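hey all, quick one before standup. I had two proteins in the batch that finished overnight and I want to keep them in one place so we stop losing track of which output belongs to which input. First protein below, input sequence then structure tokens straight from the run.
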Amino acid sequence: MRRWIVLFVLAAWHLWAHADDMSGVWTTWICPQGVQADPGKCSNFALELHQQDGRLCGSHLFATPGAARMDEGSAPSITGEVSGDTANVVITSGRTAARMRVELSLAKGALQWLRLQNPSGDYLLPMTARLTRSKSRTMFAPLFEHELKAACLMAFTAGK
């Protein structure tokens, strides 16, 4: 019983500690009208973000229906600055190496994605998306997650 109480307190603290920042895994389904969360008919978009002070770092994954085509980010593929509930970031497509500016904003527990540029290339990143925070701690395999955290730590300390 004591173990469950400790786990509950730690989980609640983690949610409270990250409630006002963008850290975490954010996901959404992008579906045709009338279709809901069907991996064979919908695209899946996920971001894993780490925020420290006014800096944001992370990676992305976009998969078309059935994962026929993918756009995966490196560690990191997302870097930028946070001011209040809005982040201005640069994202690098893993498919084409195209770089583009994106605005991320927190509102009512959701993360709004707005691509500000439309460079040429065969990248798969959406113009707009509304993502929700996942309960998953990470969306990556442990080795890549370790690599992403190390790369973000370097990005956070480089500007100091």
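OK second protein, same deal, sequence then tokens:
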Amino acid sequence: MTYEAKRAIVLAAGFGSRMVPVTLQTPKPLVKVKGTRIIDTLLDALLEDGIDDITIVRGYKKECFDELLEKYPFLQFRDNDLYEKTNSISSAKAALDLIEGGCYICEADLLINNPDVIRKYHASSDYLCSFARQTDDWCLSEKNGFAADYRKGGEECFNCYGISFWTPEDCDQLRSDIEEIWNEEGGRDVFWEFVPLVLRKDNYEVKLHECQKGDVAEIDSFQELIAMDPTYKHYGK
């Protein structure tokens, strides 16, 4: 069976503390790298595959995201006013009713170098990743053809990027599981992806959508931003 990606939810509520000082003025997804906003690379990749039902969950300096409407007038917004007190599960909770019918859930601060990592059609729920001999970042293993053992750091594993697709059936399950975890003690302190990959992993069969390491770039610090775009070398001085 083939499943169609009908919409995308883009999680963009966080502060981006490791990108200070640039994020003191601008939310991380709106930071420009070589003249292009980080979030534009994701939005353009989604549009290239005909996915234009896109909702951005915003929090920190949320009014800044209105500038996107000039280029993308069809965007919808959901506000996560709990972003300072909770983990990313609060952003998923803010858009809970939108997780349905075949849906991408994406982090907003990924620089997409290869738009082909976004696909309109999928054979199952899947999580974007690239093979790594060794990593200290979030990763998955593959067991019996499905994602397993989500953890931070590993060898002979798959580096995770925050882009995932969920089938209609798994969307229904996600809404239920996120709501349940949200209402449990400590549930508001978890990353949203812990719900399907760790806390309720038995409810899902998630495939690995493998890409090449350079297809997606994660800029994790201000120094990495400078390395990618030297025009920031004297930023704030």
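Flagging for whoever picks this up: The chain has five helices and 13 strands. The helical segments are 38-48, 89-94, 168-182, 194-199, 222-228.
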